[in-house]
Each structure stands twice: as C-alpha cells, then as structure tokens.
Amino acid sequence: MKFTGLFVATASALCLAAPVAARAQGSLPDEVNTMAQNFASIKSLLDGSTLSDMQSLIHHGAVLLDDKSTGEAKTLILGASELLDPQVVAGVKGFLDGLGSLLDGNITAQAEAVLTGAAGLLSASNVKDIGNLLAGAQLLLDPTLLSNAKATLAGTASLLDAGTVKSIKGLIAEIDPALISNAKATLAGTASLLDAGTVKEVKSLINTIATQIANL
Predict the structure, then answer these.
(1) CB-based contacts of 28, cutoff 8 Å, min separation 6
(2) How is 40-66 classified by DSSP, letter by letter?
(3) What are the angstrom distances between the C-alpha of 165 and each of 90, 107, 180?
(4) 199 vs 54, 65, 126, CA distance in Å?
(5) Could you tell me the sign of the dihedral formed by the alpha carbons of 174, 180, 184, 185, in that order?
(6) How far apart are CA 216 and CA 212, in angstroms?
(7) pLDDT tens, 24-36?
(8) What is the mean predicted confidence (pLDDT) over 183-202?
(9) Which of 9, 77, 191, 198 could form a disulfide with 129 if both were Cys (CB 3.0 to 4.6 A apart)?
C-alpha cells in the first residue's frame, strides 16, 4: 500500500505541474518531455502485481540485514572498494554505456516477468542460504583475487558489442517460470559448495580467467 500511495502521489504531482509549466512557457521543455516519456515506460512496471512482488522482495531482503550479515557485507564492501581505481571505473563505465542498448520495450516487459518470478526466490530457507553464501564469499577477497578482478572488470567494456547485446537479449527472452523454480533448488544447494577446498578451486579458476582476458 505504501508503494501504491507513493506512486499515485507522484503521478498526481506530475499531472498538476505539467499544465502550469506549459502555460508559463508555451510548451513543455525537452527535459520534461523526456521525463514524461520515461515515466510512461516505468509506469508499466508499477501495476498491482509488480508492486506486491517488490514489497515481498523488500520484506524478505530486510531479513538479511541482521548484525551478522551486515558485518559480513561491510567486509565485502571494504574489500571491493580496492577495485575502484580509474582504469576499472573507466571499464565499468563503458560496460554500463553498452547496457543502455538493452533497455528497449521488449526487455522492459521481460524484466517485469523476471521480477515477478524472483520474488519467489526469497523464501525463509533461501534467505538463510544467501546468508551462508555471503559469509563464504569473504574467503575469496584476498589481494591476488582483487588484483585479477580489476583486470577482469577493466576488460568487460569490450564485451558489449552489438553481437553480444543481441545474444543477451535472446537469453533474457528465454527466462521462464520453470527456470526461476529450478533456481530455488540451485540456490539452496550452492551454500554447501563454499568450503575451503571449493574456495581454493574458485580462486584458481578466476585467476586463470583474468589472465586470459588480460591477454585478449
């Protein structure tokens, strides 16, 4: 209900402000027209079903924010902050620029379906599994891995060419409810994989991938 009220209030304010601006200036500025078009696109995601799913995601996500998980997340964030040097930031910026071409009308509709299905992933059991994954992920953030991650992130921008964007769109289009359902079982079993031996193997794999990307 809070999301619905906020949405209605925002829409009402925009509707009231637009005629006033139009009368004062003769026509709406280009920036306002652009905002109105964006608002119309976003509005399609804010129906009753999607709002309910978003509330469910936020409610279950809050369960993850206990003292233990917050402390573990802080450790992860502090370690990840070492990745934000100018070279990596430039690489990520290029990657994000490429993502813009993915956000057409079809992808927006498909994202709505994925969001609806994702709400079912945050059950009490899965929230616990996510907490265990978060705790285990800390073991991966050693200096060597961070160094290799920098090289990997810096090279991601070159991956988003026209062919890759087309492939990603195709992958998103293939996501269906059955895949979301299978993801629940996968998530539940993943937490048990992060033991000391598996973490060592993951580090070795990431180091190898980073070396290959650096040599491209």
Answers:
(1) 18, 21, 22, 36
(2) HHHHTT-SHHHHHHHHHHHHHHHHT-S
(3) 19, 11, 22
(4) 33, 24, 21
(5) negative
(6) 7
(7) 444 556 666 777 7
(8) 69
(9) 191
Average of per-residue pLDDT values in the chain: 68
State the helix-helix crossing angle for 48-63 and 2-25, rounded to 10 degrees: 120
Cβ atoms of residues 194 and 139 within 8 Å: yes
Burial class (CB in 10 A: 0-12, 13-18, 19+), 77: exposed
Q: What Cα–Cα distance (Å) separates residue 196 from each residue in 47, 140, 180?
A: 45, 10, 29
Give how far Cα 11 sits from Cα of 7, 8, 22, 39, 177, Å.
6, 5, 17, 9, 31
Which among 122, 135, 113, 114 is positioned nearest to 184, based on CA atoms?
A: 122
Q: Compute the average pLDDT of residues 199-213.
A: 74
Q: With contact defined as beta carbons under 8 Å apart, do 7 and 51 qualify?
A: yes
Q: What is the DSSP letter of 27?
A: S
Q: Say which residues have a Cβ less than 8 Å from residue 170's Cβ, sequence separation at least 6.
A: none
pLDDT at 26: 45
